[in-house]
Design goal:
- It contains five helices and eleven strands; from the N terminus they run βαββααβαβββββββα.
- By secondary structure, the protein is of the alpha/beta class.
- A hairpin with a 5-residue loop joins strand 9 and strand 10.
- Helix 2 packs across helix 4.
- The longest helix has 11 residues.
- The mean pLDDT is 94.
- Bound molecules: glutamine (GLN).
- This is Pyridoxal 5'-phosphate synthase subunit PdxT.
């Protein structure tokens, strides 16, 4: 099982470390040729405007958007969530995203997250993160904070978190992606 980590900018090696800990082989993706034959891809946190510009410059934006639309298992964190929610970027989920949605005074914090079906809370690391104001169509909410902000969601082959599982030692989100999205690909209806 080979998982690409988009390696243009951001927290790339952190995702590689956790995917490797889960038993996956990783490939750092920096050109459109690197998409060939991947079983899944991770879009890391970083700076979504910078990542988007680099995707355009490297002629990777349209091919990646098409691969995601065709069902490539995709996991985006933080800036990755922003790019997946923007129709003009990767268009992987149907959601209204608020970039840097937690404002200045709380732009970095940690909080325990309750994940439905998981026995113990997940350590949520939030660094200038976005959130989803709402989701629509086939997008499902996975985690909503007590104030109503949506911080994890999924749609078909796409998983997104506003927080940074890659900055914790907790492999459960990466394992969940590998088990539920990569090993058991979601059937496409179109
Ligand atoms: N606020 C950043 C953006 O919108 C994302 C921050 C992050 O990935 N840590 O690009």
């Amino acid at each position: 099982m080979e998982i690409g980590v988009l390696g243009l900018q951001g927290a790339v090696s952190e995702h590689e470390r956790l995917l490797t800990a889960c038993g996956a082989t990783t490939r750092r993706v920096t050109t459109a040729n690197d998409f060939e034959g991947l079983d899944g891809i991770v879009i890391p946190g970083g700076e979504s405007t910078a990542i988007r510009k680099l995707l355009v410059r490297e002629n990777m934006l349209v091919p990646l958007r098409e691969l995601i639309a065709k069902g490539l298992p995709t996991f985006g964190t933080c800036a990755g969530m922003v790019l997946l929610a923007q129709p003009e970027s990767l268009a992987g989920i149907h959601a209204d995203v608020a970039r840097n949605g937690f404002g200045r005074q709380r732009d970095s914090f940690e909080t325990d997250l309750t994940v439905p079906g998981w026995n113990t809370p997940f350590p949520g690391v939030f660094i200038r993160v976005p959130y989803l104001k709402s989701v629509s169509g086939p997008t499902e909410t996975l985690i909503t904070l007590s104030d109503g902000r949506i911080v994890a969601a999924r749609e078909k082959n796409v998983l997104t978190t506003a927080f940074h599982p890659e900055l914790t030692g907790d492999t459960r989100f990466h394992q969940y992606f590998l088990d539920e999205f990569v090993r058991t690909p979601v059937k496409q209806t179109h």
